[in-house]
Amino acid sequence: MYYENKRDKLRNQFIIFVLLIVIIMLLCVLILKVDKTDISQVVKTNYEVEKLSTNNEENVEKGISRIISNVTKSVVGVSKLEQKGSTIFLKNAEETLGLGSGIILSDNGYILTNEHVSGGKYSNCYVTLENGKIYDGVVVWADNNLDLSIIKIFANGLSYINIGDSDSINLADEVYAIGNPVGIEFQRTITKGIISGINRTIKVTETEDSGTYMEDLIQTDATINEGNSGGPLINTNGELIGINTVKISDADGIGFAVPINIIKPILEKLIQNGKFEEAYLGIYGYDKEVIPYLDSKLDIESGVYVASIQVDGPLFNSELKVGDIIVKIDGIEINKMNDLRKYIYSKSPGDKVILLIEREGKEIEMEVELGQN
Questions:
Q1: C-alpha dist (Å) from residue 116 to 86, 88, 254, 279
Q2: Is 86 one of the catalytic residues?
Q3: 323 and 254 within one domain
Q4: Terminal Cα-to-Cα distance of the chain (whole angstroms)
Q5: Nearest CA-CA partner of 117 in 87, 137, 94, 146
Q6: Structural domain tally of the chain?
């Protein structure tokens, strides 16, 4: 009896051992199968992600190309004299013809360019559209200090550019400059670059003894040639953020554009009312960045330094003096001359504004009725 019980016990243990072995083998097979499935899924997922990434890059490139192609339809040629035939061998074409570029801002023919390209207010010029049609244009607004002007041509249904926000740009943002370098043979040339600097101030020499300062400019390394003057500087969304204006002639890859936000109040009034009556403060001032060029002893932390007061302006016989610092207008802090210009552009002749002035550590408040320029 004892031996039989022992044999039964051994047999049972053996059966249990075999069952355990079978179970372990089944588990191993199952684990391997699961691992194989996971690996195949991972490989498949990685392939799909990689493939999707490649397609996205291609789609982005195609999208930018399509955007820029649409923008070029709104780029025009601007000249002071009617362009006839080739200009590629014409020396100083920009000076001789006022040859440059412009950008259509509205479907009814408002065009933005440089003042040195179109001429001053009420000047006549010629505008050549993408389709080759030439229109007589008249300058309805111009500012020599900004080197900007707006031309009106009598046309409708035009392709026009979308306007961006030049206050939201950042260093190293990708940009494109479009224009007509040299002449009609290279019209709508596109160059690519980045925003190399913001709020730049440069001195523009007019004669050996005189010059002016252009402030708050956008610096870019996108190539800007002479005929690009007045052409658009756009972001990757095809939005206008600046107007190409000047380049450093003895250096490569240093060009400048005027930020677009400065003319937004003007454009809004022109489109809404068909005219723009320019309010006039009658002073010329400088940002704190320009002060070191004028007087190394001057040091201002904020505001706009009053450099001159025009004799026919509303502030000529007021309390304001040269050397005063305008720190606020209607309670709004002012740190750039362009901020002051932009605010005045939003007003109308006859409107009253309140200036807060700093003079020798004291604050002076004065009310001014704006004139008409």
A1: 22, 20, 20, 22
A2: no
A3: no
A4: 127
A5: 94
A6: 3
Region 325-346: mean pLDDT is 93
Locus of tokens 């360019």: 113
Candidate list 74, 221, 229, 339, residue with the active-site label: 229
H or E element that contains 176: strand 174-179
Are the C-beta atoms of residues 355 and 328 closer than 8 Å to each other?
Answer: yes
Mean pLDDT of 261-269: 93
What is the tens place of the pLDDT at every residue in 205-232? 655 555 678 889 999 999 887 778 899 9
- Annotated active-site residue 346? The verdict is no
Full domain range(s) for residue 185: 164-264
Cα dihedral: 103, 216, 204, 137 (round 10): 20
The conformational region for residue 166 under phi > 0 = left, psi -120 to 50 = alpha, else beta, is alpha
Tell me which of 113, 131, 152 is where a domain ends.
Answer: 152
Query: Of residues 143, 147, 216, 324, which has the active-site annotation?
Result: 147
Question: Is the model's pLDDT at 172 over the cut of 50?
Answer: yes
Instruction: Confirm whether 10 is domain-assigned.
Output: no
Is the residue at 145 inside a domain? yes
For strands 162-163 and 239-247, give the pairing: parallel
Mean pLDDT of 163-169: 96
pLDDT at 352: 96
Q: What pLDDT score was predicted for residue 211?
A: 64
> Are residues 365 and 321 part of one domain?
yes
The token pair that represents 91 in the structure block: 């020396």
Phi-psi region for residue 100, left (φ > 0), alpha (ψ -120 to 50) or beta?
A: beta
Task: Report whether pLDDT(340) > 90.
Answer: yes
Max Cα distance, the chain (Å): 134
- Residues 79, 101, 116, 221: which is the catalytic one? 116
**Pair 324, 368 in one domain:** yes
Torsional sign, CA 26, 27, 33, 37: positive
Contact call for residues 150 and 267 (beta carbons, < 8 A): yes
Same domain for 260 and 168: yes
Q: Active-site residue 116, yes or no?
A: yes
